Amino acid sequence: MNAPSNKGSSFYVRPHDDWVCSRCDSPSCGGCGEHGDDAEPCIPKPSLRLHRGVLTLAITALTTGVLITLLASPSRNNLLAPGPLTHAHAQILASSGSQRCDSCHGAGDRKLVDWMQDAVSSGKHIPVSQSSLCMDCHNKTLLQQFALLPHNVEPAKLAAITASTTETKASISLVNPANANGELACATCHREHHGVEFNLAALTDRQCQTCHTSYIHSFEKDHPEFTRWPDQRNRHIAFDHAVHSLKHFPEKHTNFDCRKCHIDDAGGNVKLVAPFSQSCAECHSSEVRGPESPQWTLLQLPMVDTQALANAGKSVGDWPASCDGDFDGLLPPAMKLLLSADPTIATILQRRGEQFAFTDLDRENADDLDDASRIAWGIKALIFDLANSTDQTLQQRLQLAANDAGNDAPTDGQNSIEWSSLAEGLHPDMFAQAGQLWMPDLAKELSEHRMSDPGQDDGARRVLFGRANTPVQQDDDLLVENPLTRLLSGIPVPAFPEHAEPNDSPKVPVVKNQSDPNIPDGVVTNPHIDPVGRMRNANPEDLLLENPLSELPPLAENTNPTDVNQSGNIRQLESVINQTDSQFIDRMRMEIRQGNSRQSLDRGGGWTRNDRNFAITYQPVQHIDPVMKAWIDYSMVFASAQVVQESGIQDSFTSQTSAGACMRCHTSSTDSNDNVAVVQWSPYYRDPNIRAFTRFSHQPHDSISGLSDCQSCHTINNHPVLLSSSKQESGFGDFAPITKGTCANCHRPGGAPGGCIDCHNYHVGSKVPGK
Amino acid sequence: MGVTLTIIAVLAFWFFETLQRESLQHTAWTTGYSLFGCLLFLAAFNLRKKLPFLSASGTSAMWMQLHIYVAFFSIAVFLMHIGLAVPNGVFEQALALLYVTVAGSGVYGLYMTRTIPGKLTATGFEVIFEQIPEKRRQLVACARNLILETARSTDVIAKFYLHRVAQFMERPRSLAYNFSPSLRTSKTLIEEMRQLDRYLSATQRESSRQLTTLVRKKEDLDYHWALQGRLKLWLFVHIGLTYGLVLVSVLHGVIAHAFGGGLR
């Protein structure tokens, strides 16, 4: 249909003309003459096309007006929002009103002009990215440094993991959504404004494979086989299920029921280990605590040939006659460490090596005699310092010993040591008594020794702990106060004066024994010391009226010297609890409530001064004994220090006859960040700041009848291998590994779900720096 | 050919969009820009006649077919863009409603242009929509002349015309008729006129038959008016909302850029 060139002579009607004749309504009207010469001129009227054009223009103008009104409205953001937020976000931002868009969008508080400039400038006009705004709130759950990196793993680590895989088969995928820095925006996966119930974390398997190039059609077919899941983890408790189920339990005619020791957590997700009292105490209580458990030695006098030393001009003053003879005896590891705070002794011990014993010393050798003398004086100074302030002395000497050896233990590691527990229940009076009994003139001798041998002075030692080593100035008016005299007054032992006058040191009376029907014959006790070694009486006036020590039988009358065992019963302990509120007591209170330690406390334990072999020893009083824990933690944190290694203190905790047998069950692991070994005191601990890649919840599996027996998945090996240190390091072989097939029995197409995020977390690793 | 190509294009785009979505890409950008491009192309259909290089590059029918294919392609892209779900936001719902109205009117118009011509051809005559009012006036004038002539011999036909036919001949049809045209009224009138014949002479019957013919012509004109009116009216919706849709789409794109999550 071609339009003619001459409108007037054509039959063709042009319906697209804007105006038509008002008489005939026809756009083909030839004009007024067509209706007769006499007719009045018509007034053309708009055609349909013109009407349509006007309507279009009107709607367009109306739309523009509506949009302008909308953009100027205070409800702009609400009206422009693409949809409701998820419940969590909506709840958090509810109080923000119309400004809530600003919380997540840099453009939220901008004008249309800014938006347009931003669109034209490819997002550079509004510099605040949405992901950075996300992190304003989510920095508590994601480590900001790696938050936008795939899986929140640092690139080098991720590259190493990727390189270690054998993925070869690539799937069809477009460009990686990450930017040039390898970062992914939060909104790559988390798409908001899809409604209250929308699952922001939903992710399809196919989306996971945007980056994971090995194509996995289904868990059953393509998922890699498990690598000793879940046994590759280092267990906190070295419990050999095979040996117990096949040997120990049958021997005791006891049913090996997994649920007796493994209990559900609050959510039913994790099978926790039941408390010691419920799971292990029935058989292992006596090994862990009480009088039947081995003792751990803090301090012990060696046999010293005082005559040989005196002949060589290196007299060590008073030394117990029972310890006077040919050089003999080993130095306890803890005492080695405490002595090593003195650089001179540290050098001696280092030179003589880990296996050093006083037996090695030759009374004819001048160097050996010199070393023996210095060690003996060091032991005296140590006792004096411990009598002065036990807590401070232990902490300062142990820190000094380890740090002097060039060990820079991480602050976190040092903080994990409960320093105050090193001497939990150990009162300075125990050392004061020991000093009184073993070396009556200790204070005076030490002062005189410093006078005669000023070359041993060391500024650092003096400042930190070695007041006993401080040279005495004769013209000083200050009177020395021997901490050993505190036994008389019953008040706390003050700091030893900086400058002491040896001649004014009061003579300390001999401590007498107190008869007690509850104490076995031959045991010497101190009425001022409670069962855990604390001062009983807090009222010094009462003590002034009556010296309780005077009621004690003289030590000389103690014809059968033996342990000064500070045992007590549960009532005595509770009375102590009522008087103090230390962490130890809190813990003990908890133990009492749980009934865990009643049996052991009735049996005794704690610090003991042994006057037979001149030692201060300790027997754990409870499971997870705070004293043993503190010393073991110290040995682990400073394990790399040469002094600690050569002291052999770790061996004292790991041997089969170690006190408390702590390390026989509690494994250790090395913190990957600061390379410090830590003991797994908790039977189950999952760091809330660490998110694992794989998660598993027992709860939905427990409800399946076929899986009600734990051993349907956790099959115990029929050929157990006894525990060994190598097994502790590499995991345990008492369970057959759980294979993929175990899970694939149910998690297969048409069965239970088997998607990536059903078992795996995307955000993994640490939530806080340094973890 | 065109339909096949359109289907292939839709399938290819759907595959690409799926691949993007499964690759953690924001497919909204792809579908959004594609949709906006289609929208501009469709809205510019009218420019074909105003841009010489376009008008010379093909026939009007070819451009119309292209318009239709791209429109159907854009509908598919639109469905991908909204994820086959009603948008949640007020603004986006309004935008979607605008698009659905424009696209829906287009589909309706296409259906009309494919079905109505056949129906009109069946009437046996052609008439231009804009000329229908004039034709109606001419029919009315003819009818009145005829009645005046018959009134000289009898007033039966004149009375019948005044009471029964005049309303049909001289007044516009009802809205219901324009929505759903039917021959019921005209058939009734013709039947009544046939029954009137027994009261008329032979000459008068001839006049009655002429009146019957005029009634039939009026019925045909009304039928053309109703059907051709539809062909005109859907464009009021289709074109009237198009530029508003473009405006709202532009704002939607600007907002998407400003508020879109990303790393920048």
Keywords:
heterodimer, A: 771 residues, mainly alpha, four-stranded antiparallel beta sheet, two-stranded antiparallel ribbon, 35 helices, disordered N terminus, B: 264 residues, elongated
Question: Can you describe this structure in just a few lines?
Answer:
Chain A is mainly α.
What does this structure look like?
The complex is a heterodimer of chains A (771) and B (264). Chain A has 771 residues and is mainly alpha-helical. Helices cover 37% and strands 5% of the residues of chain A. In chain A, strands 5-8-7-6 form a four-stranded antiparallel beta sheet. Chain A has a two-stranded antiparallel sheet with strand order 1-2. In chain A, a hairpin with a 6-residue loop joins strand 3 and strand 4 (271-273). With 264 residues, chain B is an all-alpha fold. Helix content of chain B is 78%, strand content 0%. Chain B is built from eleven helices and no strands. In chain B, helix 7 (156-170) runs parallel beside helix 10 and helix 9 (184-196) packs antiparallel against helix 10 (202-240). The longest helix of chain B is centred in the last third of the chain and has 39 residues, at 202-240. The radius of gyration of chain B is 27 Å and the shape is elongated. The two termini of chain B are 44 Å apart. The mean pLDDT of chain B is 89.
Sequence-ordered SSE layout with sheet pairings:
The complex is a heterodimer of chains A (771) and B (264).
Chain A: E1 19-20, E2 45-46, H1 48-72, H2 76-80, H3 87-93, H4 101-104, H5 112-120, H6 130-138, H7 155-164, H8 205-208, H9 219-222, H10 241-251, H11 258-261, E3 262-264, E4 271-273, H12 276-279, H13 281-288, E5 296-300, H14 306-311, H15 333-339, H16 343-352, H17 366-388, H18 390-404, H19 411-415, H20 428-438, H21 442-452, H22 459-464, H23 486-489, H24 540-545, E6 563-565, H25 570-579, H26 583-594, H27 598-603, E7 606-610, E8 615-619, H28 626-637, H29 642-647, H30 649-654, H31 662-665, E9 668-670, E10 677-679, E11 690-691, H32 699-702, H33 725-730, H34 740-744, H35 756-759, E12 765-766
Antiparallel strand pairs in A: 1-2, 3-4, 5-8, 6-7, 7-8, 9-10, 11-12
Chain B: H1 2-22, H2 27-43, H3 52-55, H4 60-81, H5 90-121, H6 132-150, H7 156-170, H8 175-179, H9 184-196, H10 202-240, H11 242-259
Helix pairs in contact in B: 1-4, 2-4, 2-11, 5-10, 5-11, 6-7, 6-10, 7-9, 7-10, 9-10
